[in-house]
Model the fold of this input.
Amino acid sequence: MSKKWLRNRWLWIGVAALVAIGLWLFLRPNKKTQAEQFTRSIRPQRGTITETINVSGVVSHGTQVEIYPQVNGAIVDLYVEKGDSIKKGQIIARLDTKDLLRTKQRAASDLQLARSQLSQAETNLSLQAKESTISEQQAKTNLANAEATLARLKAGSKPQEIAQAEASLRQVKLNLDNARQEEARQKLLHENGAISRQQYETAQKQVRMYQEDVYTAEQRLSLLQQDPDPAELRAAQAQVDQARSVLRGQTSIEQRKLREEAVKTARVSVAQAQISYEKAVEELASAVVRSPIDGVVLDVPVKKGSLASSNAVSANTLLATIADLTMPKVEIFVNEADIAKLTVGQTAQIKVDALSQAWEGEVYRIDPRATESSNVVTFAVDVVFRDPPHNLKAGLTADVDLVVSQKENVLWLPSYAIRSQGQQAMIMVKEGENVVRKTVRTGISDGSRTEIISGLTGKEEVLMGSFGGENTGSSNRENRDSSSQGGNRQNSMPFGSPPARIRVR
Done:
């Protein structure tokens, strides 16, 4: 063999050796550990997690007030135009008041009449009460006299009583004699024209009165001198019974009830008349329509001289629309899956795209009625600015982050480090050169970070990266559904991909 051939032979041998070595290196078994298959790892962290719901909306004017007339009447004066700034209490329009004035005058007359009738009814009731008192006193007196007569008859006459009766008779006879003498003197004077006939007749009446007194005294003495008569006793008892019956009926209950009812009826009439009068005064005042708020006039659909309706809502007689620009709002629509998380007063972050700035706001109103469009159910929500900017315009697009929950000093992991398997949330933990699957219970999430409620101590080394087509929990809601609430949702995103449904605050 030549030297050249020997050199080529060794060359080929070397090449073959190198090829063999390469094949051996290429084909030898892979001795990487399971842990080495993951790209990186992280330990659980502690911090604050804020769960938010992100929704886009449009800036609109705050409170809009539609002004309707409360009374009928032609508009005689109109003081505002579209675009005018207006203050609370400022006059918008004046309505014709001729009919309203006549109504007020009639109501005033009716009220005066009702008050007069009430006064009369109260006077009648008072007089009836006084009359009842007087009658009751008289009835008591009559009863006392009748009872005294009956008692005297039952007891019989006593010598002392007879003596007193005789003395009384003598006195009245003496009085009668004196009266007759005076009558004779008065007659003579009358005949001579010294006194008037009236004076003479007075003397005659005096004689007749004393004659009656004498008769009464004689009868009383006669009765005293006689024994009690059974008929007289029965008569006296009857007088007592009658006097008692009269006394019981002196309260005039039925008559008093009638007068009390008359007073009540009169008071009701006064109250009704008062209401009618106050309504007439209010309607007259309503003829001057004023703005209830500070704001800007958005629309004035009526003109001077047009007729205003008394039923503004159903008749749609709109005088003006005024917007309160001190409280602008963002109108958003929240999915039915998230609406239960919202309450009035909840904090929100508002970012207006055109202004490239964010402001703090709060949930102001949640419409209880759902809206369905293309099989998607949403609820209208108004979010107001707590300190609105001066250069805010209606119609601008805004991005709203609704803060639904917040927890401080919680244990958390990146959301894409957590995988979902059925109803469980799983993570991969490094233990030496091996990988161990652990089940954890998750809480709230801000989208990038998810709260770990249980299953970790915080010292574990959690692995992240691709691992054979495992699935990860993609959102806070899905994690809670699978680990905490027993939901059946599974995320189809590949392990290692970050969630995207809920915006991170």
